[in-house]
Specification:
- The chain is α+β, with helices and mostly antiparallel strands and about 350 residues long.
- Helix content is about 50%, strand content about 10%.
- The protein contains 16 helices and ten strands.
- It has helices spanning about 10-25, 65-75, 105-110, 120-125, 130-135, 150-155, 160-175, 180-185, 190-210, 220-225, 235-245, 250-270, 290-300, 305-310, 325, 330-344, and strands at about 30-35, 55-60, 80, 85, 85-90, 95, 100, 140-145, 280, 285-290.
- A four-stranded mixed β-sheet has the order 7-2-1-8. Strands 3-4 form a two-stranded antiparallel sheet. The protein has a two-stranded antiparallel ribbon with strand order 5-6.
- Strand 5 (about 85-90) and strand 6 (about 95) form a beta hairpin.
- It is elongated, with a radius of gyration of 23 Å.
- The model has no long low-confidence stretch (mean pLDDT about 95).
């Protein structure tokens, strides 16, 4: 039996063209489906429609036009579109699927700054990957203001030296724990080895996405995002071995294969001096590691921006915390990042 589910991006595109655009009329505006929501990153399925889901459009207008456009939309919005209500619960509140606001105010709300005025190093480091993915993902249906696409382009990817820095910090997260699955297993703690190994799998997945210029999404969609990366099948297989392993040696073998693959990708990217991508022993202990600090050091040595070069090897907000109370609140995310960099 075939599903009649329509992906949210497709539904919202039609909603804008058939309903919202006529209601906005001649008022200069931009319209898009960006921001929070699985449909923005095309991860939505039929299951997604059971809550916080429906035809949605963000309409950006000049500050002086917000009230009038909101009134026009409220007066003309049909009860349903494509079989779905046009007023529904979303992010804890009930309201129309059309939100009308000023672009700068929305950017400040979701990012904590307006990228149209430039993006500082601290801006880059304090915005969570999920938020960057949400603002640069989705689709712009109309950019009559001529500013929305420019804002998205400014955030499309890290400047090259900031990219090197974030990658270096990600390698250091691996370096800090890569011998531990073996050490746990050696003393008979297979559960501890599995827990540490699963954490390292997550860090490798995030590293692989960052190397391929993709902002890692939050946990629910991390595997789905990696699977979309061309050439990621063998990496995924190695990581699956590590996660499914029943012994620390099997777990270590899966991680070792994965480490070598992401190391080879970095070498091909030309971001730093190429290094030996083979695993090796951990000093005189019988554990296989890639030596993540080697790849971090090579990346940092290639940084030419003095502001980035002066940063302690702490990382961006996602490398400091994955707490929802931090990463979904721009002001808190920035405060945490600034405090960590100062303390280091």
């Amino acid at each position: 039996m075939m599903s009649d589910f329509v992906p949210g991006l497709e539904l919202s595109r039609a909603f804008y063209g058939e309903v919202v655009a006529p209601l906005v009329g001649a008022v200069p505006h931009s319209a898009a489906l960006i921001g929070p929501g699985s449909e923005v990153l095309a991860f939505d399925t039929e299951r997604s429609a059971d809550h916080d889901w429906g035809p949605r459009v963000l309409v950006f207008v000049a500050g002086g036009d917000v009230a009038a456009v909101r009134a026009a939309v409220a007066a003309g919005l049909p009860e349903r579109f494509g079989g779905y209500p046009t007023v529904f619960g979303y992010r804890g509140r009930s309201g129309p699927g059309v939100r009308v606001c000023e672009l700068g105010a929305w950017l400040q709300e979701v990012l904590g700054f307006d990228p149209r005025g430039g993006v500082s190093v601290m801006d880059w480091l304090s915005v969570p990957w999920q938020s960057l993915a949400e603002v640069t993902g989705g689709e712009v249906f109309h950019d009559g203001l001529g500013e929305l696409e420019a804002a998205r382009e400014a955030l499309s990817w890290y400047p090259r030296d900031v990219w090197r820095y974030v990658l270096a910090c990600q390698w250091m997260r691996i370096a800090q724990e890569e011998p531990f699955p073996g050490r746990c297993g050696e003393v008979g703690d297979e559960l501890g080895s599995a827990v540490v190994g699963a954490g390292l799998v997550r860090e490798v997945m995030r590293l692989a996405l960052l190397l391929r210029r993709r902002y890692p999404p939050y946990a629910k969609w991390l595997g789905s995002a990696l699977a979309r990366v061309p050439g990621s099948a063998e990496l995924g297989e190695a990581l699956a071995v590590a996660v499914g392993a029943r012994s620390w040696r099997e777990r270590e073998a899966g991680l070792a294969r994965a480490y070598s693959r992401v190391a080879a990708v970095q070498n091909r990217m030309g971001l730093a001096e190429p290094l030996d991508a083979r695993v090796r022993g951990f000093h005189d202990r019988p554990f296989l590691v890639i030596g993540g600090e080697r790849f971090a050091g090579a990346l940092l040595a290639a940084v030419s921006d003095p502001q980035v070069a002066a940063l302690p090897v702490v990382g961006c907000v996602d490398q400091l915390s994955d707490g929802v109370a931090v990463v979904r609140r721009p002001g808190v995310a920035r405060a945490v990042t600034e405090a960590a960099l100062r303390a280091a």
